Amino acid sequence: MSAEFKQHNNIFLVGLMGVGKTTIGRQLAAALEVPFKDSDKEIEERTGASVSLIFEVEGEAGFRKREAAMIAELTAQKGIVLATGGGAVLNPENRNCLQDRGLVVYLHASIEELLKRTAHSRNRPLLENTNPRERLETLFNERHPFYKSVADLVVDTEHHTVKQVVKFILKRIDPTQDL
Ligand SMILES: Nc1ncnc2c1ncn2[C@@H]1O[C@H](COP(=O)(O)OP(=O)(O)OP(=O)(O)O)[C@@H](O)[C@H]1O
Ligand SMILES: O=C(O)C1=C[C@@H](O)[C@@H](O)[C@H](O)C1
Ligand SMILES: [Mg+2]
Fold first, then answer.
1. Main role (predicted)?
2. Per-residue pLDDT tens over the stretch 46-81
3. Mutation test of ligand 2: which of 51, 52, 141 has the most ligand atoms closer than 8 Å to its C-beta?
């Protein structure tokens, strides 16, 4: 069984908006029969406001503060699958929490694919009122090194189905599992 997983029994998913953290995280948690947590959703529940509204009222800096507190709290738990916010890796303390407390999986897809997946999305304030392709490219260039630096495993979600990705991660946790 993978050492990073065994110590805390946690899986943390990182990657850009639309890459599949929530979709894959839910299915992975169901397969492992453990709770699924979504950092963005936990922040919304705690605050009583959508991510978009938090950005509007408190700015990105206000959101990042709430996110750092939430990442510290959630990664302190054991036995969860956590979908992090796309920008969580920007903060060095978040990166330490993720690296030290679970198996970190970087989900990856091309900008082209992410554009398609986020085309009709709401509640992604960083893609509003902007050229989404340019914005995603900038975010990718800025964040890819951070995603890579925290990741124990990188998985392509563009050329594999959700089911295949889940199976791949499960195998990595426990290679002896017959899936
Ligand atoms: N192979 C795949 N893996 C993951 N998602 C896929 C795949 N193929 C298609 N999708 C679709 O892509 C979308 C991914 O969105 P999802 O909300 O899971 O991403 P996210 O990483 O959580 O984004 P955000 O950071 O904005 O919360 C979903 O609509 C999902 O059905
Ligand atoms: O990529 C980002 O910076 C973000 C991604 C979302 O998950 C949310 O956390 C928020 O919209 C910011
Ligand atoms: Mg999500």
1. Catalyzes the specific phosphorylation of the 3-hydroxyl group of shikimic acid using ATP as a cosubstrate.
2. 999 999 999 999 999 999 999 999 999 999 999 999
3. 51
